TrEMBL record, chain A:
Organism: Daphnia pulex
Gene3D superfamilies: P-loop containing nucleotide triphosphate hydrolases
Entry's transmembrane regions: none
Primary subcellular site in the record, as a coarse category: other
Protein name: small monomeric GTPase
Reaction catalyzed: GTP + H2O = GDP + phosphate + H(+)
Automatic annotation (TrEMBL), chain B:
Primary residence: cytoplasm
Keywords attached to this entry: Cytoplasm, Cytoskeleton, Endosome, GTPase activation
Entry-linked PANTHER family: TBC DOMAIN-CONTAINING PROTEIN KINASE-LIKE PROTEIN, TBC1 DOMAIN FAMILY MEMBER GTPASE-ACTIVATING PROTEIN
SMART domains documented for this protein: TBC
Compartments (UniProt record): Cytoplasm, Cytoskeleton, Spindle; Early endosome; Midbody
GO molecular function annotation: ATP binding; GTPase activator activity; protein kinase activity
Residue intervals of the Rhodanese domain: 715-815
Name of the molecule in the record: TBC domain-containing protein kinase-like protein
Pfam families: Pkinase (PF00069), RabGAP-TBC (PF00566), Rhodanese (PF00581)
Species: Daphnia pulex (Water flea)
Length: 227, 821
């Protein structure tokens, strides 16, 4: 089992940074946002989330089928931002499921692998799709992951940076393995998200990010929900 | 081949070379540890079978890159005989040489180069058999590139091997970065073994020369031809066997060679006789079950010594991870000693077993022996460790499996009881009805041509159940890739979906040495349980499956269903990986083995029941949780008791009318009783209708069976029938014993049933299946059952197609007659 729990020794330290967990003393607003991760498979989406949420890294992170869901809270000045993170499957075939996850998302991280040019191309396609079909105010961040493998770099920093600027995206190169920029990219998104009552859903009251849009389920109207 | 009295297990150990610190492969993943690579290479060695080779039985990895190898062993070697100054007569020399050459011919035909010749690696059994040992180490260490010590004894090594020398720099070469030519250059060839053979023969001969002062000219020719400096001038093993010397005229008189082995205690003779018919790998499995532990044996023999970790710390470590000032740890050096493990303890442990256990088909063994009968009732994990029970089961399955496919029914019957882990691979293949000609079929499939899904397959394999060493080894990855490519290639109507890798893993692990069988099992498994799931557009298949899953939850556990529905926790969010991989993506493999042991006995609807059993095991937490907590619960699958889960699933399966889980996409052959016309999918229409209905429908067939008018099937009625048509229609004809609750008039304003005699009757039947019959021209039946569901009523279903479907059945009566029935 040793292979399975192959965590970096610095795991807890990385996640336990001051800005991370809400402490009981926080008095300010609580905002809840739905964030979705998109990108080609094996670029490190699940690893980024795992690093951000649990401070762990598994070399052999299993592939994601369908989607996975995790939450993490960050403190930003006097606001507590709770991310509800939908980590999606990367394989192109699961594409048809993606709208179910990004619908209603206030933020998205589109991930590519800096050692693989194709994944960057795929990231651009995702950005385009989000711009066209997701909520108009969605905050999109572009993450060039696996920055620890700089020796095998295939996507230049400047190229990606330029692309991100043109499209108004946040951009960082990250490494889930070394934890480089992982918390930072989530924090940057948290900063950019509107925290007035209208947008983010204070205290989870809007619940916009909580549930999947079930309009297509054909089920009984959501109003009968009891939560 | 029977195990002789002196046959024992030989345990040896060595350390694989460490990778340089912090290096990673071309895909960014850490390099596979060399010990894992050795594990993978070893597997094909364990398949070698030859009377002149000691069989390899098992390999395992322990900490610090150390591997332990278990093989057949005998205490007498050629060296022992030479040291005893035993004189080798010509007959004997010919016998020994011929045996070695036969072994070499076989090894070379399997592309295995020995390289490790020594007179102590040529073992002699008490029956006079000559058997090479330690012949696989050069092969399993990939021409010694995976270890940091040279392989082979200089005295026996061919000149070209010595000339190439030993290059420590190649010990950690990453095979993927080294071109094949380099490897070939550094690798020894079969002809080097021929030289070593010559040296061995010379050693035997010299002894007789010294003692008897005479040359044995017949052998001289052989030795000389072997000891040619240029490899190309040496004969091959095949050519050697054609020398007249090895012709039939020199048959070895067996008596000449026999020497007394340590005699077995008389009380063990009977059990030895019985055990000697079993393959050594099976005997080893039993030795393991009685508590045998190779690591402990090595420790006892003083070969493994623990050193406090602090003594192995280097004096200086650079930032890059290089370390200095650490004396070489002697324990990592190669030690060729072999620890002999006698099988006597095992025999002693088993001697109380009656002989009939070894012939289970002749007698009713299980009923004759109370201990076995008791063991059969134990929890799975315990009975898998019960040596008596396992021995009985394994011997029995062995016999049945030998008769496959004729004995398939018997195998299925026994598998219902349990499947011994040792036989699982073959039992699964039998349960999946694998065609015995699978090898040829697999050989004919193209597994090489590049394909659009190659990249996906390549990124998925190194992430799939990699905690299993075999699946993480390069051999494992290569096999994995070939099987998946073969499947994609062979099924043009389907595509590669992520998840197929998880489905393949259990088969690959079980049939690691029979890739074709692993493929055949996968190819049989998919149509049986995942028919059409791998269509390019599979959403209709999956949606139907999930809708049926929701129905099943509603049918058995309305409280849970209503809660999950209410918080919006739909199966789409968590159950796709469950069903798409038949749980292989969500549970570790040791659990999958137990799960699939039973799954393979069920039909294509059984997995739905497993899904419900999983939910029910987590029922308490789910009921207490909101959406976020629920989905977090499943993003890291909690501990599930598989044995309990299976027991529950079987219960669920048996108490569910078959038509509740009817699916349009289920494999055609399994539709119940062939009469599918009763069940008209066109009436259900699209999946969205199916999804919008919250209660399942049952077919008229199931209905009549459950109604059991003649009381033939069930002692007590299983089902209560509620007819929701208006009273007039009911009076004109109804199902005998049905309760009439007209939809229009039976509700109070707050949505509960108006109390009346019929409602009381229904209340008394709570827990039975409630089948609601509505008119065929409206959906009031469905609505009624959904309100019952809202009222947390269990086991509610609707008669498919409504009342009219029963008109032709001649079971209807006018209710006046009901009371007289």
């Amino acid at each position: 089992m040793a292979n399975r729990g192959n965590q970096a020794g610095t795991a807890t330290a990385a996640a336990g940074g001051a800005a991370q967990r809400p402490n009981g003393a926080t008095q300010g607003k609580i905002c809840q946002f739905k964030l979705v991760l998109l990108g080609e498979s094996a670029v490190g989406k699940s690893s980024l989330v795992l690093r951000f949420v649990k401070g762990q890294f598994h070399e052999y992170q299993e592939s994601t089928i369908g989607a996975a869901f995790l939450t993490q809270t960050v403190c930003l000045d006097d606001t507590t931002v709770k991310f509800e993170i939908w980590d999606t499957a990367g394989q192109e075939r699961y594409h048809s499921l993606a709208p179910m996850y990004y619908r209603g998302a206030q933020a998205a991280i589109v991930v590519y692998d800096i050692t693989n040019q194709d994944t960057f191309g795929r990231a651009k396609v995702w950005v385009k799709e989000l711009q066209r079909q997701a909520s108009p105010n969605i905050v999109i961040a572009l993450a060039g992951n696996k920055a620890d493998l700089a020796a095998k770099r295939a996507v230049e920093f400047d190229e990606a940076k330029g692309y991100a600027e043109e499209n108004g995206l946040l951009f960082m190169e990250t490494s889930a393995k070394t934890a480089m920029n992982v918390n930072d990219i989530f924090l940057a998104i948290a900063k950019k998200l509107p925290k007035n009552d209208g947008a983010g859903g204070v205290g989870g009251s809007s619940g916009q990010g909580r549930r999947l849009d079930r309009a297509e389920d054909g089920n009984k109207p959501a109003s009968s929900c009891c939560k | 081949m029977e195990l002789t009295v002196d046959c024992c297990l030989g345990v040896s150990t060595f350390c694989a070379a460490n990778h340089p610190v912090e290096s990673c492969g071309s895909n960014g993943l850490p390099l596979t540890p060399n010990s894992v690579q050795i594990l993978g290479k070893f597997q094909s060695l364990s398949q070698l079978e030859h009377p002149n080779l000691c069989a390899y039985v098992e390999i395992c990895r322990i900490q610090h890159e150390r591997v332990i190898v278990v093989a057949e062993h005998y205490s007498t070697s050629l060296q022992t005989l030479i040291l005893k100054k035993k004189i080798f007569g010509l007959d004997l020399q010919i016998h020994i040489s011929r045996s070695i050459i036969e072994a070499l011919r076989y090894l070379h035909s399997k592309n295995v180069v020995h390289q490790n010749f020594h007179s102590k690696n040529i073992l002699i059994s008490s029956e006079g058999g000559v058997k090479l040992s330690a012949y696989g180490i050069y092969y399993m260490t990939q021409s010694s590139t995976l270890v940091s010590f040279p392989i082979g004894y200089p005295k026996y090594l061919a000149p070209e091997v010595l000339l190439l020398g030993y290059d420590p720099s190649k010990s950690w070469l990453d095979k993927s970065t080294v071109c094949d030519e380099t490897l070939t250059l550094y690798s020894s060839k079969p002809k080097s073994d021929i030289w070593s053979l010559g040296m061995i023969l010379l050693e035997m001969d010299v002894l007789s020369v010294v003692v008897e002062q005479s040359v044995q000219p017949e052998l001289k020719e052989v030795i000389e031809s072997c000891l040619q400096v240029l490899p190309e001038n040496r004969p091959t093993a095949d050519q050697l066997l054609k020398y007249p010397l090895f012709g039939s005229r020199f048959n070895v008189p067996a008596a000449v060679f026999k020497f007394p082995a340590q005699p077995l205690q008389p009380d063990l003779l009977r059990i030895h006789q019985l055990m000697s018919k079993l393959p050594l790998s099976e005997v080893y499995h039993f030795w393991h079950l009685v508590g045998g532990d190779v690591e402990a044996e090595l420790r006892k023999a003083g070969i493994l010594r623990n050193k406090p970790a602090i003594f192995s710390l280097p004096c200086l470590v650079l930032e890059e991870g290089e370390s200095f000032g650490q004396t070489k740890d002697r324990t990592t050096l190669f030690d060729d000693s072999v620890v002999e493990i006698s099988l006597e303890a095992l025999l002693r442990r088993l001697q109380h077993l009656p002989s009939s256990v070894f012939d289970p088909l002749m007698d009713d063994v299980i009923n004759d022996h109370q201990t076995l009968r008791e063991a059969a009732q134990l929890p799975l994990v315990i009975k898998e460790k019960d040596i008596d029970y396992q021995l009985y089961r394994i011997v029995m399955f062995d016999k049945q499996l030998r008769g496959y496919p004729l004995t398939r029914q018997a195998i299925v019957k026994e598998a219902r009881e349990d499947v011994p882990p040792f036989c699982r691979a073959r039992v699964w293949a039998a349960l999946l009805k694998v065609d015995p000609s699978y090898s040829a079929m697999y050989a004919a499939i193209d597994k090489e041509t590049s394909h659009s899904s190659d990249r996906q397959i390549e990124v998925d394999i190194p992430r799939c159940h990699q905690y299993m060493d075999l699946l993480a080894s390069p051999e494992g990855h290569a096999k994995f890739k070939r099987i998946l490519k073969a499947w994609v290639n062979q099924h043009p109507q389907y595509v590669y979906w992520q998840g197929l890798d998880s489905l393949t893993a259990p088969f690959l692990l079980l049939h690691f040495n029979d890739e074709a069988l692993a493929y055949a099992c996968l190819a049989a498994f998919i149509p049986k349980y995942l028919n059409n799931f791998f269509w390019k557009d599979n959403s209709s298949v999956i949606q139907e499956y999930l809708a049926k899953f929701s129905h099943l939850i509603a049918f058995h556990d309305p409280v849970l269903r209503n809660h999950l529905d209410c918080i919006g926790f739909v199966p789409d969010l968590y159950a796709i990986p469950w069903f798409l991989t038949m749980f292989a993506h969500v549970f570790p493999l040791h659990k999958i083995f137990h799960l699939w042991d039973k799954l393979l006995l069920g039909n294509s609807s059984f997995p739905l029941c497993i899904g419900l059993a999983v939910l029910q095991q987590l029922r308490e937490s789910l009921l207490e949780s909101g959406f976020n907590e629920c989905i977090l619960l499943f993003s890291d699958m909690p501990e599930i008791d598989i044995e309990r889960c299976l027991k529950d699933s079987i219960e669920i399966f048996c108490s569910t009318p078959q038509s509740v889980t009817f699916r349009q996409h289920e494999p055609p052959s399994v539709s119940p009783k062939g009469n599918r016309s009763f069940w008209d999918f066109s009436l259900i229409g699209s999946n969205s209708t199916l999804k919008s209905e919250r209660c399942p429908r049952i077919s008229a067939e199931d209905f009549i069976e459950l109604l059991d008018l003649n009381h033939k099937r069930f002692a007590r009625p299983k089902m209560v029938v509620v007819d929701v048509r208006n009273a007039n229609k009911f009076q004109n004809g109804a199902v005998p014993g049905s309760i009439n609750l007209p939809y229009q008039t039976c509700w109070t304003t707050d949505g509960t049933l108006i109390p009346c005699e019929q409602v009381e009757q229904l209340e008394r039947a709570r827990g039975k299946i409630v089948c609601v019959i509505g008119s065929s021209c409206n959906d009031l039946g469905l609505k009624f059952s959904e309100i019952l569901l809202d009222l947390q009523w269990p086991r509610v279903c609707t008669l498919h197609k409504g009342f009219d479907v029963l008109l032709k059945t001649q079971i209807l009566v006018v209710p006046a007659a009901v009371g007289m029935c």
